[in-house]
Fold:
Amino acid sequence: MNRLSLTLSRAIARVTESPLGRYQSAVIRIGFAGTWLLFLLREFPHRQELYGPDGPWSWDLARRLTSDNHAFTALMWSGGQLWFEVFYLLAILSSAALMLGWRTRTASLLFMVGVLSLQNRSVFVGDGGDNVLHLMSIYLVFTRCGGVWSLDARRAALREAARERGQRASGDRVGPALWVVLGLVLGGVTLAGRFDGGLVPVLLWTAWAGLGLWGAVQRLERAREPRILLDVIANVLHNGALCVIMAEACLIYATAGWYKIQGSRWQDGTAVYYPLHLDYFSPWPGLADLMSSSGTIMMIVAYGTVMVQVAFPFTLFNRRVKNVLLVLMMTEHAVIAVVLGLPFFSLAMITADAVFLPTSFLLLLGGLVARARGRMTGRGEGHGDGHGDGARPDDPGHEGDSGLEGDSGLEGGPGRDGESDGSGDGDGTLPAPRSPEEGTRGHVGFTA
Structure:
């Protein structure tokens, strides 16, 4: 009984004291935001046909559909061309801001609004990658995904360095200004009756109120206990959302694999052959003909795809097998991107796979990127600090592979995360207010 209590206490402390998977959450933030940004830029010349008010799926048809299914889309607030152009531009800017990690909390909310609004405006022009982005844009709102490899993290590191030198850090004005603007927009939309109910308006108002509460508590000199409580709540939400993202990825592969098993084409090993000879899935006909010229290769690819998808959820408890399957699945999606001409679907799935990557690999990758950037900018090889670039091996947040029996690739550690909106700075003696993106430097979790 004592051993069970101790194990439970450690588990609760681990979930509440710090955000797990800081590097994994940063990777999926960059991946999903970058995928959506590339899609919006790629389809910019065709935006009118896809989502415009005078497109094939007209504004009136979209309004009838959304009135029946109650799907959230800000494009239904007005049928004018100007509103559509402004909103499309805002969707591009919010995607870029989230990818760079600038004001991550506000950017994640705007990113979610952009994804849901455009996809729900024209539900018949998407593919499986759009479904993944649709779900992940909601989950990202609950994560503290700006803790590393972000502009927020770099700003927090610079503030901390200034405090250590005894310098007075300048106050943050952008965060409170964004919070006020977001509140005015939400209030105006609500008073105008544009919200038709549903969970998205509730989520937006709750997030806005939470950011305001966080900023107010951080500015109170003696509010140590409320700060700890809010930090614990943020950690629990982050860790829970990260688990949901992992479960969603496993569910996608499991359902895809088991449904394939029931198909006769997959059973006889010919399912891969037919998409290669469809005109709209053959950007490289010569390459498709070369791949499909061997029946043995087609059968191996078909059976291998099914086995990998069905087996993947069961391999999470074995690091070596999981990492091998990750390489196979990412390679498969890269091939799909080239051979079948589905780059955005493949990027979305590769990003979903990245949540299972080992922390040690991500740290190595971050260090390589930092050194390459340093050589390009003429600043030497650069270094990773665990915030903007990579991380040193002695970083307190670097614990190697941990999580599910030490194999899921999530790292913990109480290390310091980045910052976001509603944050400010103190003087040389008092700690500056922290943002929802910023973790604690000591144990603040609950124990059983």
Summary: Residues 20 and 412 are 5 Å apart (CA to CA). The two ends are 13 Å apart (CA to CA).
